[in-house]
Amino acid sequence: MAKRVLITGASGFIGRHCVPHLVERGFEVHAVSLRSRPPEAEVRWHTVDLLDEGQIGRVLDDVRPTYLLHLAWVTEPGRYQRSEDNLRWVQASLSLLRGLQRAGGQRVVMAGSCAEYDQRYGYCSEGVTPLAPVTPYGVCKHATQLMLAAFSELAGLSSAWGRVFSVYGPHEHPERLVASVARALLGGREALCTAGVQVRDYLYVEDAATAFVALLDSGVTGPVNIASGRGIVVRDLVQTLGEVCGRTELVRLGALSTRGDEPLVIFGDSGRLRSTVGWAPRWELRAGLEETVRWWLGARRASGRDDSAIDR
Prior knowledge:
The protein is an alpha/beta fold. It folds into two domains: 4-165 and 204-226, Rossmann fold, CATH 3.40.50.720; 168-200 and 230-309, UDP-galactose 4-epimerase, domain 1 (Alpha-Beta Complex). It is 37% helix and 19% strand. It is built from nine helices and 15 strands. The strands form four sheets. The protein has a seven-stranded parallel β-sheet, sandwiched between helices. Strands 6-15-10-13 form a four-stranded mixed β-sheet. Strands 8-11 form a two-stranded parallel sheet. Strand 4, helix 3 (85-102) and strand 5 form a beta-alpha-beta unit. Helix 5 (177-186) runs parallel beside helix 7 (234-245) and helix 5 (177-186) crosses helix 9. The longest helix is centred in the middle third of the chain and has 20 residues, at 136-155. The chain is globular.
């Protein structure tokens, strides 16, 4: 089939890293962004508000993609977990599926979340760990996954669902952990953190992007964890970041309290991603942190050290 892909969230954190890998794999790339983008030789950009059903229909009728990579969702730290926009994104996802079917599309991959799992179990494995989301974000993501599976069966679509764990790297939202610590240390400020005893699954954004693109370009169906498969103690990550920045004396572990409802351990089984999709990570943690710090240094210089002016 023709490899014409429509990617949503293409200017977002993970999506912007997916675009060049889609081009490398021979896709004709049509990228969706809420804001207009300058023309590119190998990518056609479409300015679309995906919360407007009419705009969704028009772009799908125009592009008539054979593939859909749907990454767009509400993701703003401090807001996304309980935002009513989660419900609107469920509806938008269904509209995308209907439009893809109408356009004759054949395969779709959507982004899910580790927040769908029952996080009391810590180790999250597809088909084994129970699914019991507790936030509106997790509930809506899981509802969308169930909807995707049912719609795909009825419509004859090939589909997969990539459950994302903790991703870090260039263009991350400045209020998330790695970005916020790096920005503080590079600015000569104290990086206030919890004690950091939590265990999380951190994956460099380039590896997350290649995982999504490999999943899209495969015939694998159903849920697949987008994860490193390794649990990392947050304290160790922050201390390594301090070393990379050369400012370990500014790291303040234990300065913030840990939320009482925060799970101690969350990391994913990456066996299906590795063995069935055929993906493997390229970036070790320290190398990924070094690249992230280099990007933030460059971004600070380009913006005159005004973090608010940095294009995420």
